[in-house]
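Q: Sequence in, structure out?
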Amino acid sequence: MPTASKRAKRAAVAAVKEEEGEADIAYDKENETNRGGRGKRSNRREKRKPQSSSSDEDESNDANNEEEVDDDGDHEEEEEEEEVPRSPSSPKRSKKKRKSADATPLKGRHTNPTGKPAEAGIIQEVYVENFMCHRKLSVKLCRNVNFIHGQNGSGKSAILAAIQVCLGAGARRTHRARNLKDLVRKEAGADCSGAKLRVTLLNKGADGYKHDIYGDTITVERAISLRSGGFNGYKLLDCSGKEQSRAKKDLDAMLDQLNIQVENPVAVLDQEEAKKFLTGKPEDKYEFFTKATELERLDRCYASIADNILEQQNTQQRARDNIGGAIETTKKLKNEWEQFQELDKLEVEVQELRANYGWSLHSEFAGQLNEEMKKAQKYSRKLEKTRTELTTAEQSVNVTDDEEVALRKKVEELTEEANQAAKTKTEIENQVKESLAPIKQKERDREVLNRELAQAKKSHKGALRRLKQARDQILESQGNAKEEERARTRKIAQTETDLASAKEQVDPLKDEITKHLRDFQDVEPSVSQTKETREGTEKQLHAVQQKIRAMQAESGEGKQALAVFGGKCKALYESVQKAMKAKKFKGPVVGPVGMHVRVTTGKEKWAQIAETSMGLGALDRFVVTNQSDLQLMNKLRKQVGCGPRDCALFRIHPRSTKEKYNVPAPPEGVETVTSVLNVENAMAFNFLVDHCNIDTIALSESKESSEQALLLTDGSGKQSIRGGKVRKVYFLPNADHWETDKAGNRVMIANDRGMKQKTIGVDRSKAIESTKHEVKALQQELARNKSEEKAVGAAAFKSKKAWNQAQRNHQKLLSNMKKMEAMLDELKAEAETSEEAPTIDTSEYEADIAEAESSVEDLKKQEVEINDQIQSLQPAHKELKKQLVEITARNKKILDDMDKVDAKLEDIVKGQKRREEEVDKVKAKVKQIEGVLEQQEDTVKEIKGKVSDALAGARKMNFYYNRDLEIFKLKKDHGGEIPEGKEVELEPTAEDLEKIEIFEPSRDPKHFKTKLQNKMRKIEQEKERRNISESDPAVARDKYFRAKRDLDSKMEQINAIERNCTSLRKDLRGRKERWRAFRSHIAEMTNIGFDEFLNKKGSAGEVDFNHETHELNLIVQKDNMDGKSQTKDVKALSGGERSFVTISLLLAIGESLETPFRVMDEFDVFLDPVARKIALQTLVKTAKAMEHRQFIFITPQDVSSLPTGSKLRIFKMKAPARSSNVGGAQQQTLDFEN
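A: Exactly. Output:
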C-alpha cells in the first residue's frame, strides 16, 4: 500500500471527547488504564521529539520516514492527503488523519512518548540460582533493546519464566510447570534446598516507587523452598541489598506504581500464548485483545458494580419492609417519655420546695442565733462592767495612808472652792433679781395697759352701737320724712360700720404681706440656683454633642479620635499643625496630651481609674515651652472658639522636652499610673508628672488589698504609705482613694462623681458610642433640672403672686378707707346743711366714738413703747442668767467631786476589811457571770453549727434545684437529651456551694414542708393516673432514644443505600460510556498500527472488531497492491506469514500499552529470511523509537547481523552440553557475546 495511503490511514481515528474524572473511573479506586494502555505514569511524562538512531543505514532510512512532532505538543503539523489508486478488493478503510492526542481519550497522557531514556520499572538484572536448567545465571540487560538467542535447551525461556515468577506470576502462567517446586533444577540433587530468583528494577525519576526508602533500584527476590519450614515468598531489597519488606501487598503496590503487568499476554508473550492467539477462534482472539488491553478486567469490574447495586436495592427493600414495627415501638416509647417530661417539671418544683425549705430552716436557725448572740453580748457587757467594778474595788483595797492625806487635802481644797462658788452664785442671783425687777414692772404695766386697751375697744364698740340706735330712732321718729334724708342717714351708718370693719382688717393684711414676702425671699435663691444648674447642664450637653459631631467628622479607622478630648481639640490641633508648618512657633508644641497616652498591653482594666486619678482637664492640654508660644496658642484658641475650660495650656521648662523624667519603679506587686500608661513623648510624660503627679499615685483592686499592700503602721500608731514616693492610693470599683496626713493619720476620700468615661486608648467608633451614652445621661439630667426649675419657679411665682395680691388688697383697703372717710365727711356735711335737721342730736355719740378711737390709738402706742423697753432690758438679764447657769453647774461639779472624795475617804476610814469583803463579793459575781457567759457561748456555738449545717444543706438543695432546672430546660430544648458541650455538673464542689448567695424566704419551714409533702403526693398520684409501665424516667428516656436512634439509623441506612445506588448507577453509566469510547479508540489504533506494520513487508491488513458478538477477525492482503491476495483465514497463511502477522498485531496492540518492559519469546518462528529481516528491522526501529521502554526478544535464531550499541544488546546463550546420563543437558556457566 503506498506511503500516502498509510499516512492517511494513520490519521483516521475519530476524536472521542474526554470526560472529567477519567483518571479515576475504576470502582475499586484502581486506575482502569494502569495495565490497559493509559498508566499512571503517563500523566507525568513530557513529550519529546523523536530521536533517530544512526546505528545502521536501515534505521536512518526509517527515521527519515517518521512524522515529526512539536516539542510542546500543542499542535501537530498536518500532512496533505495523496490520492493513490488502490485495489477494489483491498481492505476498506476511510481516509482519515490521525489526530493529535489532544482530541482523543488519551489527551494529556502522552501515550508512548519517545526520546527519553527509561528511568523506572525496566529490568536491570536477572539472577537465578538452581532454577530450571541453570545452576547460577546473571543477565544484565540494556535499558532499551535486548535480544537473547541460543539453541533449544540453552535456557532462554528460563529467563522469561524467572521474570514472570519473581514478579508475581504463578507457575501455570509460565506454561512450564504446575507448581513452583517443579521449576527447581533437578540436577542440583537431594541436597538442594530450593531455588532463588532475583530481578533488579530501575527506580529513578518521578515515577519511582518510594525512592526515599529503596533508592535508585529495587530488587525483588523470590525464594522457592523444597524443604518444610523453609522461606517461600518474596523479599523487596533496596539499592544497597537491605531487606525492606516481605509483604505481598508491598510487591503489588510496587508493580502497580511501576505499571508492570507480567500476566498481560502482550506485555509478556510466551510461546504458548503466541500459538493460541492466531490458531484460536474469533472469540478467543477478541478475548485475547480485551485481556491484553485490560478492557476485560474493567468490564468485569462494572458487572460487579451492577450486581452490587442490585444487592443494595434488595437490602433497601427488605429494610423498608421490616421497619414498621420499629416505628410503632418508637411512638409508644415517645409517649411514655413525654409523660415523664411532665413529671420532670413536677420534680423540679419539688426540688425548688426542698431548697426553700432548706433556706427557711437556715433563716429560722439564724434568727435563733441572733437572739442568743444578743444574750451573749448582754452577758459580755455585764461581765466587763463587773470586772471594772472589781478593778476599782481592788484598787480601793490598796489605798495607802498617803492617799488618805491626799484625799483630806483634796476635800479642803474642794470645800474652799465650793464656798467661793456659792458666794459667787449668791451675788449673781441677786444681780439676776435686780435685773428682773424692772422687766417684771414693765410686764405688769403692759398687763394693765392691755386691760385698758380692751376696755377702750369695748367702749368704742358701745359708742358705735349707741350711735346706730340713735340714728335708727331718728329714722323711726321722722316717719314720712324725706326719703333722701333717710337714705343719707342709713348710708352714714353703713359707711361708719364699713370703715370700722376695714380698720380691723388692716393689721391682718400687714401680717399676711409679711408672711408672703418671707416665703418669696426663702424660695428666690433656689430659683437662681436651679436656673444655673439647668444652664450648666445644657452647656455640658451642648459640648458633648459637639464632641460627637467632631469625632464623627474625623477620618481614619482604628485611630484614636481627637474629639474624645474635647469638641475643640481637633480644630485647635489642625491650627497648631498649620502654624508649625509655617514655623510660627519658637519651641516644640505637644497636644492634646491624651493623643500620646496609651494603655500598656495587658493592663487595660486600670485605664479608667488611672484617667480618673489624673483629674479633669489633663488629657486635652497643649504644652509649650516659652511665653511667645503661649501667647500664640491663646490666639489660636480664640480663633477656634475655645472656652475657658477647653484645651487649656501648660508651660513646661525647655529642659523637660528632651528626655523623660527618671521615675522610680513602683513597689513589687503594686501598679502606679506610670506603670499602667505608656507615654512615648517626653513633653507629655513630664507634663503629667509635673501637673498630675502620676508617679505618686498607686492603683489597687480594692480598699482591703490596697491597705494590705501599701499601708504601714509603726509602733506609735502612726500610719504611712509604703513605696517611698507614693502619696495617694486609688482603688476600684469607684476610684475612691486614701492618703496619710502629716500627723500620721489615714484620710479616706470618696469619689462621689464616679469614674470618668474612658478616653485613653479608645478608637473613634468606641468613643462615639460611649459619648452617646453620656449624651443620654445628660439629657436625662437636663430633664430633671428643668423639672426642678419649673417646680421652684412655680413656688416662687405663687409666693410672689400672693405677696402682690396681699399688697394690692392692703392698698385697696386703705384706698377704700380713705374713700369711706371722705364719703362720711361729705354725708355729715350734707346732713348739717340740710333744711330739716334731725330731731335727735347724735353729735354726742359721734364725739364718744372719736374719743374711744383716740384712746385706743394712745393705748396701742403705749403698748409698743413698753414692749421696746422690755426688749432692751432682756439681753442683760439673759447674760446674767447664763452666768448663773454656768456657776451653778460649776458648783454642782465641785459638790459631786466632794461627794466622790468623801466617799473614798469614808471607805478608807471604815477600814480595809470591808473593802476586802467587797472585792470578794465582786469576784464571786464575776465568776458567776463568766459561768453564765460560757454556757451562753456554748449555746451560740451549737446554734452556729446548726446554722452552718442548715446553710450547707440549703445551698446544696439550691444547687440541685438549679441543676435539675437546667437539665430540664436543656432536655426540653434539645429533644430530651443534653447536647454535647453542655454537660451539667451533677454534684457540687465547695466553690460552687460558696458562690450561692443566701436567700431569705418569706414563709416559715412548716409552710414549705406542707407544700413539699402535698407536691410529692401529687407526683405519686400522677404516676398512678398515667399508668406508666416504666418506673425509672432515665430508663424510659434511654429506651425511647435508643429506639429513636435505631429507627433514625435504619432510615439513614435506607436513605444512604438509595443515595449510594443512585450515585453508583450514574457513575456506572458514565464509566461504561467512557469504557466503550476507550474500546473503540484502542481498537481503531490497533487497526491502523496493524496495517502500518504489514506495509513494511509490502502487505496490508485490517483488524475487524465486532463488539456486539465479541469477535475479532484478521483480514490480510499479502500484496498490498493485489486485492486478490486478500484472505480472512489466517490459517491459510504460511508459518512465516502467520508469524509476521502475529508480530504486527502484537506491536499494534502494544502501542496502547505503557508497561515499562515487554518480552516476546520465539517471535520469529517460521519466518523466511526476508520476512525475518523485515521483522527484525521493524522490531528494532519500533523499540528504539520508544527508548523509554525496554524490549526483550527471545529467539532461537541467530541475530548476530544486528549492530549492537548503547541501545541494543545481544545475549547469546551457550549451547547445552548433551549427555547420555539421565537428566539431560547440563549448564554450569554462561558466557555472553555482545
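Residues 955 and 997 are 8 Å apart (CA to CA).
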